[in-house]
Design a protein that fits this description.
Elements lengths: L2 H14 L6 H16 L3 H16 L4 E5 L2 E6 L3 E8 L3 E6 L11 E2 L6 E6 L6 H12 L7
Antiparallel strand pairs: 1-2, 2-3, 3-4, 4-6, 5-6
Length: 144
């Protein structure tokens, strides 16, 4: 990376309160950061907050964009959650959500998946979200 790219990443790191362990991780995670930056209006702010909470809760988290959604997982263990932008809300999918305590409120057609839908005026319970992330990251991940 050249100095302009380093400066750009440093600004993004500060804005997101995201501390990458190395340049390689920043490069790999760039698609997730680009996805979040492209989220419209209030969703971008919420996406940055979700990403920061996930990163703070699971410091060794791995990130990728798959099927137009950010995915979060543990290297070699699979993915434990993703989120996706809809017109009026963001849907967080916990892939082993039925094993979380308490179980996230949104039901899925898939037995183990549970959802958390967050709308513009909703107040995110950050402590509960972080607890779900912590629990989810310790369960077997989904291989996709």
């Amino acid at each position: 990376m050249d100095n302009d790219q380093d400066r750009e990443w440093n600004q993004a790191d500060t804005a997101l309160r995201w501390q990458s362990p190395d340049r390689e991780s920043r490069r790999r995670w760039a698609p997730v950061q680009a996805y979040i930056a492209a989220m419209p209006g209030w969703k971008s702010d919420l996406g940055r907050r979700l990403d920061a909470l996930i990163g703070q809760t699971v410091p060794d988290v791995h990130k990728a964009v798959k099927w137009n959604s950010p995915f979060y997982g543990i290297k070699g263990e699979g993915w434990f959650l993703s989120f996706h932008c809809f017109t009026k809300y963001i849907k967080v999918a916990f892939f082993r959500g039925s094993s979380l305590e308490p179980v996230p409120p949104g039901v899925s057609k898939q037995k183990e998946v549970r959802y958390l839908d967050i709308r513009e005026d909703d107040q995110l319970d950050e402590a509960q979200f972080a607890d779900w992330v912590r629990q989810a990251s310790r369960l077997p991940g989904e291989r996709m």
